[in-house]
Write a structure and sequence with these properties.
Layout (H helix, E strand, L loop, with lengths): L2 H12 L7 H8 L3 H12 L3 H19 L4 H7 L4 H12 L3 H20 L1
Length: about 120
């Protein structure tokens, strides 16, 4: 993989909680925005914005599975408004973030009861 694309991927991972523009990414790797868009899609198979949104949603899924943060807190951690976050999450995973988290919280309660009993 091209080192500039790797650098953009690292920047994306480090910036999940804030707005990250294509211009900012392009400047960071010394390319024009159009050249970065073409190179990124050729290397990853996805447009920049789609890749970043998917990365944020994967990170939010991990947070929902491993923390007791609220949906609003998680939306903030992945740089999205709560409304867009819920819509995007449901579109990707077929369930709202609240219902997704409830599955893991219920499983955690059950496993703690089994350990105590």
């Amino acid at each position: 993989m091209d080192q500039r694309v790797r650098a953009v991927l690292a920047l994306m991972n480090a910036s999940l909680n804030r707005k990250l523009t294509v211009y900012e990414m392009a400047i960071a790797v010394g390319l024009s925005t159009s050249h970065l868009r073409r190179l990124f899609k050729a290397q990853t198979g996805k447009p920049l914005a789609t890749y970043l949104k998917d990365l944020r949603l994967q990170h939010s899924r991990d947070l929902l599975e491993t923390t007791f943060l609220s949906v609003k807190q998680i939306a903030d951690r992945v740089g999205q408004s709560p409304n867009h976050f819920v819509t995007d999450f449901k579109k990707m995973y077929g369930v709202t973030p609240g219902r997704f988290a409830a599955r893991y919280q219920q499983a955690d309660k059950s496993s703690r009861r089994a350990q105590i009993g």
